[in-house]
């Protein structure tokens, strides 16, 4: 298709970390870029599910934070720093991992600003509803928005939707969860206000509160360690990750039950805190959601699946286009996460074929939908890694649009290094 007949060079589905990384990568490679996002804001789980931390920017554990992701992800952190968010590596006392704590409202604005600065067309309150394709390529997508349906024609496409929505409507084969019908547990993070700044956070008291909650509630909390918690940056609010819900399938009925029971549990849990934990007497539930935190849904077929052995050996590859350093973190059973360390130098490479759709030459993947087996997926899915895989996918998509065929990994690597990415 001649370049003059297209609306954009690259169209991206999804505005989370993977989609933002892809948009920045593609724009810096010279592409005309449109990004389609179903919510009224960008940020993915960091803003739509209140996951107030970027995981995967640094190697696991250790006395010092060792950076694994730069490039597009670092550009976002720099913008947040200009807005007054510290964004320094934080050593989690619960897991020992290095993370970046977030302010979700400033993050929304930071992402708006960064994409505007890169000339990206952002379409909020819109989603990809259909795709037109030939045997080997997507030609256009139908976008459903507030003003009805419209068609976007492009040379290349990136699925950064998290749920593989673009790949699904394009007819790419899918694996659900681990391939045997099991999905990782979903989580309802809580943000609690009304706590004095000087209140001491006592993990033992939170364990006791959870025990009391479980005596009173018909819905049980399965985390026995008191969960993961911290103060929200630039706030006295308390953020707590403690409520997990098993998801038997991806039906609307199951999502509804998980959302509704999660909210009931959150309200009751705050009541227990008010009764039992010193300093929480005036606490109130400031926020859940806007939606429950989704860890896993569909996995579209890629040309390569990162495997468990790649992660635990820290495999480095000549065709690697991104680093991944987060440990394997599996939530196969609600409230009982399992961790495995990354081997080798503390990171492994994401190969270009893990980002490339099987059977479609101009469809690329970013974030949660990249090729990974059920165990490796526990490492690849986090947001810091999504920025890195997204930036690589965006560059690959831009070069595909320019050349008419998929680029060589060396071309993608050269462009990424020029953009400041770590490989």
Automatic annotation (TrEMBL):
<keyword id="KW-0479">Metal-binding</keyword>
<keyword id="KW-0004">4Fe-4S</keyword>
<dbReference type="GO" id="GO:0016491">
    <property type="term" value="F:oxidoreductase activity"/>
</dbReference>
<dbReference type="GO" id="GO:0051539">
    <property type="term" value="F:4 iron, 4 sulfur cluster binding"/>
</dbReference>
<dbReference type="Pfam" id="PF12831">
    <property type="entry name" value="FAD_oxidored"/>
</dbReference>
<protein>
    <submittedName>
        <fullName>FAD-dependent oxidoreductase</fullName>
    </submittedName>
</protein>
<dbReference type="GO" id="GO:0046872">
    <property type="term" value="F:metal ion binding"/>
</dbReference>
<keyword id="KW-0411">Iron-sulfur</keyword>
<keyword id="KW-0408">Iron</keyword>
<keyword id="KW-0560">Oxidoreductase</keyword>
<dbReference type="InterPro" id="IPR036188">
    <property type="entry name" value="FAD/NAD-bd_sf"/>
</dbReference>
<dbReference type="InterPro" id="IPR039650">
    <property type="entry name" value="HdrA-like"/>
</dbReference>
């Amino acid at each position: 298709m001649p370049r003059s007949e297209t609306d954009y060079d690259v169209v991206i589905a999804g505005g989370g970390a993977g989609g933002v990384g892809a948009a920045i990568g593609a724009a810096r490679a010279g592409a005309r870029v449109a990004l389609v996002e179903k919510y009224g804001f960008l940020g993915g789980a960091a803003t739509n599910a209140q996951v107030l931390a970027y995981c995967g920017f640094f190697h696991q554990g250790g006395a010092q934070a060792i950076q694994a992701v730069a490039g597009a992800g670092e550009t976002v952190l720099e913008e947040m720093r200009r807005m007054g968010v510290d964004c320094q590596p934080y050593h989690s006392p619960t897991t020992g991992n290095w993370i970046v704590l977030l302010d979700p409202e400033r993050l929304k604005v930071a992402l708006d600003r960064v994409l505007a600065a890169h000339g990206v067309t952002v379409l909020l309150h819109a989603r990809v509803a259909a795709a037109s394709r030939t045997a080997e390529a997507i030609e256009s997508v139908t976008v459903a928005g507030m003003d009805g349906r419209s068609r976007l024609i492009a040379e290349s496409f990136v699925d950064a939707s998290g749920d593989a929505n673009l790949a699904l409507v394009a007819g790419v084969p899918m694996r659900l969860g681990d391939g045997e019908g099991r999905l990782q547990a979903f989580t309802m993070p809580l943000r609690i206000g009304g706590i004095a700044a000087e209140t001491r956070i006592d993990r033992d008291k939170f364990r006791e509160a959870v025990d009391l909650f479980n005596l009173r509630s018909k819905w049980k909390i399965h985390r026995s360690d008191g969960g993961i918690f911290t103060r929200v940056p630039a706030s006295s609010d308390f953020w707590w990750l403690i409520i997990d819900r098993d998801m038997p399938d991806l039906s609307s009925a199951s999502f509804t039950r998980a959302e509704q029971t999660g909210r009931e549990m959150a309200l009751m849990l705050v009541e227990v805190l008010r009764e039992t934990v010193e300093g929480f007497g005036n606490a109130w539930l400031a926020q859940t959601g806007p939606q429950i935190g989704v860890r896993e849904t569909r996995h579209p077929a890629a040309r390569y699946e990162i495997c468990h052995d790649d992660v635990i050996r820290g495999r480095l590859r000549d065709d690697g286009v991104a680093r991944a350093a987060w440990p394997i973190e599996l939530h196969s059973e609600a409230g009982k996460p399992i961790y495995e360390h990354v081997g080798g130098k503390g990171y492994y490479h994401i190969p270009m074929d893990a980002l490339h759709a099987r059977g479609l030459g101009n469809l690329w993947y970013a974030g949660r939908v990249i090729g990974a087996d059920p165990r490796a997926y526990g490492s690849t899915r986090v947001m810091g890694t999504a920025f890195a895989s997204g930036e690589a996918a965006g560059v690959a998509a831009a070069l595909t649009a320019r050349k008419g065929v998929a680029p060589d990994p060396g071309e993608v690597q050269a462009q990424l290094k020029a953009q400041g990415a770590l490989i």
